[in-house]
Request: fold
Amino acid sequence: MTTASDPSYPAHWEADVVLRDGGTARIRPITTEDAGRLVSFYEQVSDESKYYRFFAPYPRLSARDVRRFTHHDYVDRVGLAATIGEEFIGTVRYDRIGPDGRPASAPADEAEVAFLVQDAHQGRGVASALLEHIGAVARERGVRRFAAEVLPANNKMIKVFKDAGYEQKRSFEDGSVHLTLDLEPTAESLAVQRAREQRAEARSVQRLLTPRSVAVIGVSRSGAGVGAAALRNLRDSGFRGHLYAVNEAVTTDLLDGVRAYRALGAVDAPVDLAVIAVPAERVPEAVAACGEHGVQGLVVLSAGYGESGPAGLDRQRELVRQVRSYGMRLIGPNAYGVINTAPEVGLNASLTPAPAPIRGRIGLFTQSGAIGISLLSALLRRGEGLSSFVSAGNRADVSGNDILQYWYEDEATDVALMYLETLGNPRKFTRLARRTAAVKPVVVARGGRHTPAGHVVPGTRLPDATVSALLRQAGVIRVDTVTELVDVGLLLASQPLPAGPRVAILGNSESLGVLTYDACLAQGLRPGAPQDLTTAARPQDFRAALAAALGSAENDAVIVTVIPWVNEQEPQDDLAEALRDAAAGYPGKPVAVVHVELAELVDALSPAGPGAAPATAASPRPRPTDEEGGGFAGPDVRIPAYPAAERAVRAVAEAVRYGQWRRANAEAGQVPAYEDIDEAAAAARLADLLADVGDGVLTLTEPDAAALLAHYGIRVLPTLPAPSADAAVRAARSLGYPVALKTTAPHLRHRADLGGVRLDLATEADLRRSYEELTDLLGTADELLPVVQAMVPRGVDTVVRSVIDPAAGAVLSFGLAGVASELLGDTAHRLVPATDRDAAGLIRSIRAAPLLFGWRGSDPVDTPALEELLLRLSRLVDDHPEVVGVTLEPVVVATEGLSVLSAAVRVAHPPARTDLGPRTLPSY
Reply:
């Protein structure tokens, strides 16, 4: 008998999932303790659904049925249940079968699968989620195919199998549809899985941001405190739905003008969103009341959780478990709140006092409430509005990944700004960010290099520079400060993307123009000579100069520099109108303004400034066209203004780089399929190597490493040991002169600068003399571990690596060999699997890349061969998660071809779940 507490119980199969409608459910193995739940579940299923399951009327389960469906060995017989609270809402099971269709055990690799979903929960994607998870379980247990018998009238279940994306066969036998599914993940099944994930997670956030009714739990009668503030902000910001206040001690029908109740259960209407502002020890009671009332989502403002220490962290984990047990989602705890400026919603469930931010095209996500306040204030001061705002606090449930899923399809959001203190799942974040960045900019400021208190998501071992490189690969605009976050966001929200790096500079100050010119060069832009309009320039002069610069085919963007007039006061509204008039005539090119002590000009250029129609809930700005790439034309032209040249130029430069990324990634790269790769042979070799390995990591011997790499077309140049001078001579005769003599002692390996390498030894005499020099200078042969290797054509020495990070997954790295590159950290990175486009960009993104392309008259090396090596290694680590680390050093890249002189490979048993596994919410 197996229970959840037995050692054989596969706890790692438990998972929380988001369903199609945005609610959550828990999927877990069925145990013998579930007999009562199974019977209750079956009683709630309609007769029609029972008929579809058993192909005959089957009103109730017999005792034998209950035993069969609750007793599993979790190898040949497996049952999973989807639950909400303690109740089953759906079940799935498989039974391993042999070729004759009768029960079997391994090595039989086919199983019969069957589902049953409670009628009230059909259409929520329960069966699809169960199929993903039972498929992953089956693959783990060596099952490669599912067989299913379905009645022709059971269209819903046929569609579940059809839409899964697996390769399948269908036939009609004995009055039923016989389906066979190949469980090996395919590109189509992975695409289906991720599309479902996106829709479900986006819908779960949408439910939080578009409630029709909100209850604030914990509103004080005195009007003081967090709960009362949240209630006032909701009321004063014009929330369009129903609003309720909850306080167990209330004695009146109204609190602060809002209908008040002593308990949430007394509200005789549905409540979509609850804002909880009670002490942490009373939050479980409030969550339970919300779950019983059918609330869809929570914003927990209460503190006293992970940020307060180990006890608070335990409280936070329990909070998440409780919230998800009711099928709800959670923002917080220790959250600042959420805002949605959509006119039909008008939601300000935050601690930001009314008036709420104006309607705009920027979506803003922060983990920190303090940073959220700072960003909201900065955007307000500069006249910019928001589409939505989420400050998730400890982000124990809803995270930046969920918000990205929502913004991807949100037509009200054109620019995504994110302040993140940690990247809990960099692999998923970069995947989502890449997809989102293909249609709208994603700008990220990272506020910490280590996991802060309260954030229970696992950190990454990758250096911050590596994480930044991976974000850049995904098209994310990475900035360093919240000021830069606002600066870049303002430009992207109001201006089109520049077509290139050519920047025109004009203004009424020569010195400010020169500063701007220097800043452009520092950012890698191509500025033209600054045009000095002199201090006598009037608004009409700015208009004419800006129009000319924008109209020139030689410019991709324009930066206008402005200082105050000395002799007389020129109305700044006139200058703003002149600049807008000129920009409106050329909506395809961005304009930015650098000013000195001209605060009124900033106001005049903002949406709410004179001469520009203010953005309101009733009159949102028109969306930019795809051809314009962002920004707005017409009477509502906005031009961002900056108090320093460096800030304006940084914003323009980031827009240029993002535009280049968008154009370069308009067509997705490909992962080449090399015909000489033998994936099956590599898998068999890995299985043999790991047969006697426990939970640790095995470093392969050089022959084993070379043999494994050879299955993927990567040839490692052989080396022969040379424990004595005579042995070195015999090795050289076997390999053929000229040869290299190298030490392999750990402290000397790959350190040619320490004298442990002798090259181009053409004769036996040369070899014996070098051997004697090495042993006299550096130590005995036993200490040096010398080897002999054939010489290869001269070229550029490089290093190729792949490592597995627990959060980011497999990362491919490239750099030049040598102390200088290591000291300067001149290494580039890409996530695996790398495409041909990734490989080409990888070798070109290091600072020393010119050495590969003919620097100072040298011959360019064979970069196509280097790209192929990177792609082959990427395929190896992607196909085989057992490979946890590879170092190829040095890789000598010549004018024709390359040579891998040494390889180190580490392997281990793969984790139970990988990125190709079923959809699941994080569980910390």
Summary: DSSP finds 27 helices and 39 strands in the chain. The radius of gyration is 32 Å.
